[in-house]
Design a protein that fits this description.
2 helices, alpha+beta, Rhinovirus 14, subunit 4, 66 residues
Length: 66
């Protein structure tokens, strides 16, 4: 392996806007993110599927067992 061509790999803290902090290793120190798995609506169960055009209902009606 060649010497001095790889980035410096350090322990870092990833901090979310909601306040959650995750300890990991990366090439950057103190990473700040806007959203994480603890506050993202898809992971917390607060996500709602908005079907304004009725596509899901049409699909279910089309393939409904008779």
């Amino acid at each position: 392996m060649k010497q001095a061509i790889h980035p410096h790999y350090v322990e870092t803290t990833v901090t979310c806007a909601c306040g959650a902090a995750i300890e990991t290793r990366a090439t950057k120190e103190d990473i700040k993110v806007e959203i994480c798995s603890q506050c993202h609506p898809m992971y917390t169960g607060k996500y709602k599927l908005m079907d304004t055009e009725g596509r899901v209902e049409r699909f279910l009606n089309k393939y409904k067992k008779k």
